[in-house]
Amino acid sequence: MKKPVAEKSSTSKTASWQRAYRARMREQGLVPIQVYIRVEHTELLKTTERILRETALPSSFRPLEAMSAMSHPWNTESLNDALIAHIAETGEALQVHLLRGAEPVIEVICPEQGGLALHMTSSGVRIFVSTVLCHADSVTDRNAFNDACLRLNPINPLSNIGLQSTPSGDLYTVFGELSARSPLISIVEEIHVLAHNALQATDALRSYIH
User: Fold this and answer.
1) Which domains does the chain have, with CATH numbers?
2) 8 Å CB contact between 158 and 176
3) Could you tell me which of 11, 25, 77, 153 has the fewest CB atoms within 10 Å of its CB?
């Protein structure tokens, strides 16, 4: 008899979080719009949605550029150089460093998010962006924490929470992916969205971390 009660409670909590998410969107003056597109344009729509959530479009936003994919995919080094040039041109509040090794990694520091560090790599097919949420050893109740992470993912659909094995132990990370042929403006927007979602996740999951 207890199982249906637990399932009902779980469903109720998910519905409550979804209502809270919709309420936050409305408070920001955002409205839901239903559109029908081809599946291959899904990533472009996500990028455009992020940009159109802002009260003013960034000066670097050029619709025709955003609508066309890169003819040559980014690799980690070329993306690092492009980000450095973008920061120099726009004064973007980001710091970028290339960490060289067997596989180079771009470290992006976000001063406006308290110095949050993100890491980016490009395989030539996909660009992977991630940041550490917490060390698994710092979680008080792993089962409850995992459940909370799964429930949080649908609320922040543009980023995901995952578990990564490292020599120093398991790490929970917030991560996102996009095409290696994405225009630079989409990649910069992904950086900002991931940093924001990482801070939101940290705040939402704080009670599980000691």
Assistant:
1) 69-208 (3.30.1460.10)
2) yes
3) 11
